[in-house]
Amino acid sequence: MERAQPPKRTLTPVLKRRLIEAGIVVAVAVIGLLVWRALRPTGPGAGFVVGNGRIEATEIDIATKLAGRVQDILVNEGDFVVEGQPLAQMQIAVLDAQRDEAQAQSRKAVNAVASAAAQVVASQSQTAAAQAVVEQRESELDAAQRRQVRTETLAGQGVLAVQDLDDGRARVSGGEAALAGAQAQVAASQAATVAAQAQVVGAGSSVEAAQATIARIEADIQDSLLKSPRSGRVQYRIAQPGEVLGAGGKVLNLVDLGDVYMTFFLPETVVGRVALGSDVHIVLDAALQWVIPAKVSYVASTAQFTPKTVETASERQKLMFRVKAQIDRALLEKHLKLVKTGLPGVAWLKLDAQAQWPAALIVKVPQ
């Protein structure tokens, strides 16, 4: 008995059409892949090197000079500020009181100078009077000495009594004592004058010290108004009004948009050919239509392992050198509102001075 044969399977027209369409799609994909591999861009050539990086800028912390309470913050995050613009105000009530005290001390020192100067004048007057007394005593002594000479002559001739001779000698001794006393008075007056002059100098020093204290306090008051050291953009408000900060406490974080650069890494095999001032063309991931010009401003002197955020795991095994490409300040100031930090991109660097930039990497910036 013969076994029945299974029926032969035949493709339906619909299935045949789907298989043909799938084959066409696969063929087109394969052809497209081959064409893409043949025509894909291979970079500008051997005279160029590329590195990945991010846009960075110089950051400045606006901090207090002295400990105190924040009275007011005059800007918000994202605000553009110019150099010298007030940003925050610290409370200065204590400094005002200290300045008033120093000004009172200054006035007191000025009065002390006037008093000491008057004392100098009085001492000088006393010295002059004492000097006049000395001259008077000298005249009296001279007269007594002359009379004594005559008395001794007459007493030797027996004309005058011995008592007259003794009286003359007593007058001479008294005149010498009176002269010595007057001279001592002159010396005392002169010493008093010197002391009064020293008091003038000391009081004058007190005036200078008080004025220096006032100047220091006024400088602290001026520094309590925190001003922007550069033009830029406020990135963070670190403190709030009413907070008490220590000396050096941070209030704001400022980004100098005129000092913007991209940091990238190059392998040790090519970094030796990179010179300061070399042209760099930057293309940002967020703005592929623009090519931003820059200059190499820094090349690290020592190698390091490339950070994970820059290269793949295999590339991290290579020693790389940090390179910084500085963007021209004039260009940045022209487009301040477009400048953003932290944006990733690539930096193309020309190693061969004779090489020409390809059309895709020719400088193109917003107008």
Could you characterize the architecture of this molecule?
With 367 residues, the protein is an alpha+beta fold. Helix content is 44%, strand content 26%. The protein is built from 5 helices and 13 strands. It has helices spanning 13-39, 93-156, 162-223, 268-271, 329-334; strands at residues 48-63, 68-73, 80-81, 86-90, 225-227, 232-237, 244-245, 250-267, 279-284, 287-299, 304-305, 319-327, 344-350. It starts with 12 loop residues before the first helix and ends in a 17-residue tail after the last strand. The relative contact order is 0.18. Mean pLDDT is 80; it is low at 35-42.
The helix/strand order is HEEEEHHEEEEHEEEEHE
Percentage of residues in helical conformation: 40-55%
Oligomeric assembly:
single chain
Report the portion of residues in β strands.
Answer: 25-35%
Separation, N- and C-terminal Cα atoms: 94 Å
Spatial order of strands in the largest sheet:
1-8-12-10-9-13
Low-confidence stretches: 35-42
The radius of gyration over CA amounts to 49 Å
Tally of DSSP β-strands? 13
The coarse overall form would be: rod-shaped
Characterize the main sheet: 6 strands, antiparallel, barrel
The overall average pLDDT, rounded, is 80
Number of helical segments with 4 or more residues: 5
Give me the secondary-structure category. alpha+beta
